[in-house]
Amino acid sequence: MQQRIKKISVWLILMMLGLGLNSPAVWAHAGHAGPMVPFVKDKTALKTLLAGKGRKLVKRKEALARETAEWLAEFFNEEPASGDISRFFVAKDRKSGQAVALAMISEAPYHHGKMRLIVAIDDQSRVIGAAVLGVNKNYVQDFEAKNRAGWIDELKATPLSALIDKGHQAEKEPSTLDDKIMIELKDSAVLLSGFLHQLQKEER
Hints:
seven-stranded antiparallel beta sheet
């Protein structure tokens, strides 16, 4: 009798494991969102947003100072966490060495995959442009249907305040693809403005 109970217990455990391994959620989290499909190559996006005559491109890795976070809170009503290391790109004037534009590439979750984005600002904290660089294969159609596979036309040469407003509006009830994109781009652009502030202080 005891042996029979053990056999039944083992069978139940195996059945439960089998159900777990075959569940859509498990397979989805195992990378079944498909490979990353690029809409715009990183190099192309950086060249489009930052390149210019007499400029050199520099990759930076830096933490946002607490003072800078407080400055962002005062001017933009945004206060990202200070101390976290961020990676971004800086276009500098070759003669003066001053920063003339900054760009950041970021990743954000999308269903069981992720989307890759880029945003750039100039030395006056105006948005130069932004794009969705790519997304997992299974979600390409979502982005193409919403005209979000690549460059985002309405963010070309726009005030940072306009992007921040879009991001704040999206945060109230984030439900659409556009909401997710605008929130991520807003966060990146605010960080860039903070790093620009730090760089300009160094240059003085």
